[in-house]
Amino acid sequence: MTISSISSLEDLNAITYDNFVENDSLTKFNNITAYFIHHGLIAKFRNGLLAGQNLGQFVTSYCDESGVNSYEMTTSPESVSTYELYTAGFTQDCYFIPFSKKDFISSYFSEITPQLSEVIFDLMKSTGRLIQIGSGGGKAFILKPIQFNQTHFESLPVFNTPEQLINVAQEAIESLKLQIKDVDYYVQKIAEKDEIISQLNQHILELNNRINQVYQTTWR
Asked: What does residue 143 show for φ and ψ, rounded to 5 degrees?
């Protein structure tokens, strides 16, 4: 079912909170995933996920390949500081989503119309629930699941339903038709006045000719 509007705070939180905390496939943000960020391994981890690996499987293959062990990844100062940077003051579970904005929306907001999904995405970003890593559309996001409140819900713009948009368009067409009739009316009135002016000018010309004839006759 396509969602084109949000009618309640519960609906908003179902999309922005329940949709994630009830998703068992999400990757937790921890010191290991913080290590990926610091060492530029986001794309490599993304490819691992797309190939069907989970976090544990990817870490195992990466450690075999690089010679680094998972304990080092977890306890390195870079991992700890990066993790603390993105989670400062937040004590609940966070999630690491190594995909761009476009992929994020297509994965988690696939049933939401583009206009509304953009609004929800921007609301999550502006309120710190989504932290973007990388410029442009981003290379990854850290998700902090926090429920929105009534004030957030009321800040959402009101979207017309397709039926309402059709009605508005039909009303605009009818209004345009009436305006065209008005224009035709004014054009006709102007044409009539132009005809009257033309007749008056002709009459004035005839009078002037008569006056000239009388004048010339008088002076002979």
From this structure: -105, 125
